[in-house]
Amino acid sequence: MALHRGLAPEARPPETQAWTAAELGRFLRWADAYDGDAAMAWRLLAATGMRRGEALALRWRDIDLDAGRLAVRRSIGVVKNKGAGQQLVEGSTKTGQSRVVDLDAGTVVALRAYRAARQEVARELVRDGALVLSNVDGTPRHPERFSRQFITHLARARRALGDEQLPAIRLHDLRHTHASLLLADGVPVKVVSERLGHANATITLTVYQHVHPGMGREAADRFAALPEG
Q1: Alpha carbon distance 157, 76 (integer Å)
Q2: Residues 6 or more apart from 193 whose CB is under 8 A from it?
Q3: What are the tens digits of pLDDT across the range 148-186?
């Protein structure tokens, strides 16, 4: 007798947390004053929605400051070899596809200042092939240590500003913050999906459908306000 197989349970999107625009601004202002070098990394992640490994693999030749855009082509990850420890490996993005992300004017200004400051340290740090977010010796940052640095900075920021002013989030939640703020502001899902590098817009909808539950009500109210034909 054949067993009846019911429908597979609906896939649940991964848990996401996101800051409001005010919270993000609060943290970035604190970070600029505390550690300008690290602040550039946090700003870049929040302004583009890049994944951690994509940001760490970004090179100066990937950025066109005059046009105000950057190309996401590669990603740096950690490979753990049995008996040989960890190794940083640079490869393709998660989807295997590159993408171009437009930058806001404030991020362009910040990148120009960051580049000038790095050039003062060593010209090699701003050559076309140099990593934008490298260590001061030009080597790539370790992704896991990079995440831990964010957690440390956030903890200090919360002590300085007050826990109620800055909810605790993970580094990856800067990506969620980027997406949720754009969606809440009415940016089309397809545009947000392309900025994030999702394989398709359905993934974006699935991940962010619970971030702003009021958006459905707002859409209904807007429809009701349309003039009748």
Answers
A1: 27
A2: 200, 201, 203, 204
A3: 999 999 999 999 999 999 999 999 999 999 999 998 888
